[in-house]
Amino acid sequence: MTRRQARSGRSRKDPLWARLSLLFGALLLVASGGVLVGGKVLLDHYSGQITHEGGLGDAAAEGASIDGPINLLLVGIDERVGNEAMGVRADSIIIAHVPSSHDAVYLTSIPRDTRVQIPSSPKTKYDGGTGKINSAFQFGYQNGGGRDGGLELLARTVSSLVGGLKFNGAAIVNFDGFKGLVDALGGVHMCVDEKVTSVHTGWDTRTGKEGVPYYFNADGNPTGLKPNMRPQIYEVGCYDMAAWEALDYVRQRDKMANNDGDYGRQRHQQQFIKAMAAKATSAGVVANPIKVNKVLNSVGRAVSFYDNNVELADWIFTLKGIKPDRMVTLKVNNGKFNSQSINGQWYEFLDDTAKELLTAIATNQVEAFVAAHPELISNDAAQPATSQRTGG
């Protein structure tokens, strides 16, 4: 058994939205800033749907100000409604860093299997210990901690990776609402950078009906193609994707041409964030009041934003200068596995450059660091032709 095979033998039953994250709802609200500026009542309405207090604990930046550099913790979780005993883990963890100029954002994914020291959480009866970073949310969520407790312990865990790393805000993504948000946008334009075969979506060659094309073992890993099933395949190129296609594409990590697993999926998630932002700020959305309202209503169902006591209006106006082409996606460990087995369990470890990147985030030196390490930039796939993809 290879290291990659051993790594992939973990539970994989989390729903699609656990794989996703986006640059919280405020960036989508920014796309319609002109609409919101005109009416405080409207702004208060959307603010009430989106914002939450707390959630960061001692990982929160001091003072209710976002005048300087900004760090945001973006989280997608596996929340099994009605079955808390199954646990709740953070399966998508992204640090979004905005420099003092407030005209760009750098997105850095933390591998969910990173081995870390998780602080104690007396409120949820967790004594602290060493484990995978995605379990921090679960230990804060348990015993009545809920989302607030889970986010707080995860934020404290990420903060402890490097001294001085604090967060000005955070967001949790809910898949059911998130799917509606993508539908409200009318899909997104995505560029596929490696051939990807879906293990979740396929078509029966006899009836044409949609179904799951692969068998899965008890750990949720695909084991073989079902008879008469044709899996959905995403070929290299640029496409206008419907919501179901984009969400299915960024879910995949098993049958990818580059065999880059979670790192490939992280890259595709980051590219998806940029595609969402591009669509949200496009003329077709901003110039259509009906679509704007539909998108904004969807944001409240998709995103829970923890504002660290900063008014949503301040977030909107502070971040309004960020354009999709100034969203820079970065590769931790240069996008390659850096694994080690300890007591039969596979973990990821941050290499020295990744640790230096986190230090640069904490000290507002990201721009200079990335300029010195251009290999960390995850270039977007780009093809000259645009195609339309259809299922079936």
Automatic annotation (TrEMBL):
- Ranges for domain Cell envelope-related transcriptional attenuator come to 89-281
| PANTHER family per UniProt | POLYISOPRENYL-TEICHOIC ACID--PEPTIDOGLYCAN TEICHOIC ACID TRANSFERASE TAGU (PTHR33392)
> What's this protein's family per the entry?
Belongs to the LytR/CpsA/Psr (LCP) family.
Q: What is this protein called?
A: LCP family protein
Q: Which organism is it from?
A: Dactylosporangium fulvum
**Which lineage do the record's taxonomy fields give for this organism?**
Bacteria, Bacillati, Actinomycetota, Actinomycetes, Micromonosporales
